[in-house]
Amino acid sequence: MRNFKYQHLIKSKDSFQKPKRKMLLQNIKPIIVGSMLSWTSAFIPYAQATHSPELQEAPIISFSSAQTNKPLINIDKFLEKKVILPSVDYFPAFRMLDHTMCFSLDKYAEQKLPLHLFQKALIHEWKIEIHGIYPLLFSENAGKLGFDVIEQISFQHNKKEKRFNYIRPQFFIGYKKNKPNTLIIAVTPGEDYIYHYASMVRHYLSKLTKNAEDLFEIHRYPDLEDKLADWTNLDNKFVHSHDIVILGSVEKIEQFLLNKHKAKLLSKEKSDYYESTRYQLSNGKVVNFLGVKYSYWGCMSGKIVKKLCELGAQEIIYSAKLGSMTKPEDLYQKIYAPTKYLTMKFHSVIRFIVNVPNKFVEKFPQLNSEWHVSIPTVLEEDFEQRRVATQVGAQSIDNEISRMAAAIEDYNLQQNTKIPFCAIHFATDYVRKKGEKKRRSCF
């Protein structure tokens, strides 16, 4: 393994300066600590020169009639069960100085919403509903939900073109005869992702009116959530027995692998939801780069990983970005490779996960970052949640890692197997402590 030292780019305790692109790549790219030819999990992410998009003026909203395209899949049977919930019930709406993002909180939430449309809905007393239905399937199923006509709203807060992880919620206006109009947000079905968007909607509405909690409903479809891997057809066309499955930053890792090692292409599969590219290495091992087109936020990641285990995955590796709770100087500089995990919901610890094999840390114990916490939403990240997590020992935070680890731990226990899991991440933002409200950071 190549030895290196983390370069501290931040000099001031009270301010944060974004690392420059050139410096990031020079410092992070060399952190490739091994080869898959000798060990299966030798993948380290390097920093992308991308940051959260800057807040821009609200876009002009153009209305277009919803197109009647051929459905990706018939989901009628998954819509039979529905649960309607009033707003977000397990944590309050925070003001900026109550939250670890402080003055960046409004910017984070509002850039993801067509603000003019929500203002119009309040002024004209429309209903507001968040539906846990895959955005690209909502138009074809709106009639089954009681809408006579719907119009899709043209809105895209991040215009960067991506091959994976690009499906985001879509916004519609629904019309019913002799009833108020409805502003609809169609969100990929997963409890955490639905609450994530619901909490951002509530946050913005609470700035406009004191009655925000009473102004919208959450419509969840339990079968769509539970059977995510089934109705998206994640099956043995994409994942074969004994594959080493890579999730997350698959394009960059695939490029690095092909530049450094000889690999034989075995198969390529593509659908409306997934892309799989499988290679056989010179040592006979098969690496499967599995790209997911939708955002598998929070609990959705656990459902995907459970399915990968059922399909016979030999090992699962997840490489992406996360939030640091160590120090701002570690942004883009420190590798986070946790081996102990906890899940939280607001201030409550839900579960500890400590019995998941990790080949990467077995090989390189000096990179063990130990405890990691995963939470359902960003807007619940207040200072008390951070205190509880760091009291346990958590050094990093995201929405997926611990969910994936929990799914693998459960599968290993039920099937008496020992599937390893490796999360190798870099930090792009720092989660402030209570006494650091003045500290500037980026998100």
* Percent in strands: 15-25%
**SSE pattern, N- to C-terminal:** HEEHHEHEEEHEHHEHEEEHEEEHEHEHE
Task: Give me the secondary-structure category.
Answer: alpha/beta
In CATH terms, the superfamily of the largest domain is: Nucleoside phosphorylase domain
Using the alpha-carbon principal axes, give the shape: globular
Number of helices: 12
Give the strand order of the largest sheet, numbering strands 1, 2, ... along the chain: 1-4-5-6-3-7-2
The rounded Rg comes to 22 Å
How would you describe this protein?
The protein is an alpha/beta fold and 443 residues long. The chain has 2 domains: 21-52 and 233-293 and 296-436, Rossmann fold, CATH 3.40.50.1580; 63-228, no CATH class. 25% of the residues lie in helices and 24% in strands. It has 12 helices and 17 strands. A 7-stranded mixed sheet has the order 1-4-5-6-3-7-2. Strands 12-16-15-13-17 form a 5-stranded mixed beta barrel. A hairpin with a 6-residue loop joins strand 5 (170-175) and strand 6. The longest helix is centred in the middle third of the chain and has 18 residues, at 191-208.
